[in-house]
């Protein structure tokens, strides 16, 4: 993605109407074909040009083409077409604006004329259009080419990490019925810290203090939530509480975590080749990480048999480990961990599996995306042991919104006033109570 100064002025209001017009689409297509012919004539010389030179070339060729064919467009319309064509030749075409927009979190393409983006958790349809499905494929291949990933009829799905840390998932025919399905998850250049999440209203300062002490006291934590609820962002923020003297090993399918820490080893799984060879799974990496002298093991997402290795690590001296898991509540999180362990071939009884989970996990942090797009910590739940062969829990905080006198919905987290059960936190909790009793300030 080029950072050179563009010769094109910023988009003016009202320009989107022209960009949606048939004239814009037709003229852009015709001039694009003309440019491809000229580039072929230039050969290797074109390949040496920088972004500014290509932009100037497009302007000159567009001006000559419109004059030769007596096409009546004004200067602003010509600049818009030239801008779009330059991005076709040097960048990501119709996606370029969205990729550069810091407010955009996800870009979802469902065929050439159906593009959605997520901003602040809310999906909206965009005016961005591709000429046809082949146009999408040209852009996708341009993105995948440096990554060395294959995408064709024999391998119609690909999931890859982008150079900037984002993620792209593509499904094409014959699996995608209505044209290529492209999902791009963008990467924040400045990962959110706990203080940022408090400021954004994801949780309050009381919860932040407990989370800080839970991490520093080496409690094992699972961050649970649905798709696009903010699990990875929260996990990334929690790792900022880990002391700088500790060694962290992160394990992910697609590396998304960006830890602000001195000593981090980042591991990423590898999909198998077309014939199935070369596969390295999360489970393989987790087993190997135990031989790497980790102080903490962070699993980006627990979704398969690796749950067994993570539980064993938590139970055998690797306290302070963390991971995310797809689940709609703290109780569902426990059920899912049981189910995944069962699928992975756990040999013991149901009760012994539950006992392993209860001994391994200290806290479940449930996060959710509300209908208005806001991401909020829904509950902070502690695992307290086993009762009647069922994993016992206690909820320390619960999210309950309310409507104020002006009819506006406000956030509120209700503390149930229960002391943490974990021995790792008991000394800290006693200090908190003493501070409260003497009118002092809470502090970690």
Q: Low-confidence segments, ≥5 residues, pLDDT <50? A: 1-15
Distance between the termini: 43 Å
The general outline is elongated
Please state the structural category: alpha/beta
The percent of residues in helical segments reads 25-40%
Number of helices: 15
Tell me the CATH topology of the largest domain.
Answer: Rossmann fold
CATH class of the largest domain: Alpha Beta
User: Beta fraction of the residues?
Assistant: 15-25%
Strand order of the largest sheet: 9-8-10-11-7-12-13-14-17
Description:
The chain is α/β, with parallel strands linked by helices and 444 residues long. The chain folds into three domains: 16-90, no CATH class; 94-185, Beta-Lactamase; 194-436, P-loop containing nucleotide triphosphate hydrolases (Rossmann fold, 3-Layer(aba) Sandwich). 37% of the residues lie in helices and 21% in strands. It is built from 15 helices and 17 strands. The strands form three sheets. Strands 9-8-10-11-7-12-13-14-17 form a nine-stranded mixed sheet, sandwiched between helices. A hairpin with a 5-residue loop joins β4 (157-161) and β5. α2 crosses α5. The longest helix is centred in the first third of the chain and has 21 residues, at 22-42. It is elongated. The two termini are 43 Å apart. Residues 1-15 have low confidence and may be disordered.
């Amino acid at each position: 993605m080029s950072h050179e100064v563009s010769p094109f002025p910023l988009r003016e209001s009202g320009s989107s109407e022209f960009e949606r017009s048939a004239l814009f689409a037709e003229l852009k297509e015709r001039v694009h074909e003309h440019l491809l012919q000229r580039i072929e004539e230039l050969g290797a010389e074109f390949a040496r040009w920088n972004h500014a030179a290509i932009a100037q070339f497009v302007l000159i060729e567009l001006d000559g083409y419109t004059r030769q064919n007596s096409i009546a467009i004004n200067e602003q319309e010509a600049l818009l077409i030239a801008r779009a064509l330059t991005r076709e030749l040097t960048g990501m075409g119709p996606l370029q604006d969205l990729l550069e927009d810091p407010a955009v979190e996800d870009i979802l393409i469902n065929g050439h004329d159906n593009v959605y983006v997520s901003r602040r958790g809310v999906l909206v349809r965009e005016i961005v259009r591709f000429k046809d499905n082949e146009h999408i494929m040209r852009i996708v291949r341009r993105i995948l080419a440096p990554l060395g990933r294959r995408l064709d009829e024999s391998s119609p799905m690909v999931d890859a990490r982008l150079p900037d840390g984002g993620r792209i998932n593509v499904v094409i025919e014959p699996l995608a019925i209505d044209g290529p399905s492209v999902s791009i998850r963008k990467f924040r250049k400045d990962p959110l810290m706990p203080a940022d999440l408090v400021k954004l209203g994801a949780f309050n300062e009381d919860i932040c203090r407990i989370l800080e002490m839970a991490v520093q006291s080496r409690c094992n934590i699972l961050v649970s939530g649905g798709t696009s609820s903010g699990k990875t962002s929260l996990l990334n923020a929690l790792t900022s509480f880990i002391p700088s003297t500790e060694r962290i090993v992160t394990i992910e399918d697609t590396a998304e975590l960006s830890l602000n820490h001195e000593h981090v080893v980042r591991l990423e799984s590898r999909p198998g080749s077309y014939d199935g060879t070369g596969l390295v799974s999360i489970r393989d990496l987790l087993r190997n990480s135990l031989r790497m002298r980790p102080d903490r093991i962070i699993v980006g997402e627990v979704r398969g048999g690796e749950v067994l290795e993570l539980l064993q690590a938590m139970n055998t001296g690797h306290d302070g480990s963390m991971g995310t898991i797809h689940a709609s509540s703290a109780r569902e999180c426990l059920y899912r961990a049981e189910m995944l362990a069962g699928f992975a071939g756990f040999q013991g009884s149901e009760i012994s599996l539950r006992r392993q989970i209860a001994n391994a996990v200290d806290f479940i942090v449930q996060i959710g995306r509300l209908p208005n797009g806001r991401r909020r910590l829904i509950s902070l739940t502690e695992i307290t042991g086993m009762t009647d062969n069922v994993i016992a829990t206690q909820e320390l905080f619960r999210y309950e919104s309310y409507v104020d006198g002006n009819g506006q919905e406000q956030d509120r987290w209700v503390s149930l006033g229960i002391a943490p059960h974990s021995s790792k936190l008991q000394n800290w909790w006693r200090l908190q109570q003493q501070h409260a009793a003497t009118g002092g300030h809470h502090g970690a």
